[in-house]
Design goal:
The chain is an alpha+beta fold. The chain is 49% helix and 19% strand. It has helices at 27-63, 122-126, 161-191, 199-222, 226-253, and strands spanning 79-94, 97-105, 113-117, 132-138, 141-147, 150-153. It has a six-stranded antiparallel β-sheet. Residues 1-22 are annotated as: Disordered.
């Protein structure tokens, strides 16, 4: 081809894309971290929004009296006891979680129904078909099962639900915030085209997240006082993240970091 007909690639009007250096965070990683963090924080917000309702129900349950002591207007919220007969017991497994079920009859005229027990307690271990038991109810919930002097809660006990929701909500909030913070960190590393892989920093942040989540969940389980749970969780998170920031700063100053 003649010199005039040659294609001058260097004078092409279209810019040539620069190849991404190895180790540079990808845009997909930033997006995934942002989406996961947003979903977790939104789920925590939903749990916190529903918390006042279950707290009110738990307070009503704790204030309920046995129906024999309750007056007529409050009889719908009193604690009832019903004699029943054990039809069968069974154990189910789902995703390595074990569930213990008891099927009982209140009377020959009414259909049998199943009760999911909480854990492997003393009542569950002693039951056999034909045993006489006592079913404890509040409103339309079976909250406890009795056999002689033994008692065992079911999974529908109302005063346990606020604890579970609060613990799960705090853990989701902490982990979701870490993901969002990580998305911002990845975005900044892309902006400065940092290609090193600070494994030690990632491990430290993961350990701090587990520790902060554990403190929050333990506080939720240890006490029913919401303000105390939030105070302990906030103080624990502040202490953990302060220590984490100091440790990361020390790692960044190390030679070769």
């Amino acid at each position: 081809m003649s010199e005039t007909g040659a294609v001058n690639r260097s004078s092409s009007p279209y810019p040539h894309p620069h190849p991404q250096p190895p180790g540079l965070p990808s845009p997909k990683g930033v997006v995934v971290a942002s989406v996961v963090g947003s979903v977790l924080v939104l789920a925590a917000a939903v749990l916190f929004a529903l918390l006042p309702g279950v707290l009110s129900e738990a307070a009503d349950f704790r204030a309920a009296r046995p129906c024999a002591e309750a007056s007529a207007p409050e009889s719908g919220d009193c604690l009832s006891e019903w004699p029943a007969t054990v039809v069968s017991t069974e154990t189910g497994r789902s995703n390595k979680a074990v569930t213990n079920w008891v099927t009982v009859d209140l009377s020959p005229e009414e259909p049998s129904f199943r009760i999911r027990m909480r854990g492997d307690g003393p009542v569950w271990r002693e039951l056999a078909p034909g045993d006489r038991v006592t079913v404890f109810t509040w409103r339309d919930l079976v909250w406890q099962l009795g056999s002689g002097e033994l008692r065992q809660d079911t999974t529908e006990t109302p005063d346990r639900e606020p604890t579970v929701r609060l613990a799960v909500g705090l853990v989701l909030l902490i982990v979701g915030t870490v993901f969002l913070r990580g998305a911002g960190w990845l975005h900044r590393r892309r902006a400065i085209r940092a290609t090193d892989t600070p494994t030690a920093q990632v491990v430290v942040v993961m350990a701090a997240t587990l520790l902060a989540s554990g403190i929050a969940a333990t506080a939720a389980v240890a006490t029913d006082t919401i303000w105390l749970v939030l105070l302990v969780a906030a103080a624990g998170c502040a202490a953990v993240w302060t220590a984490t920031a100091l440790l990361l700063r020390g790692l960044a100053r190390r030679p070769g970091a």
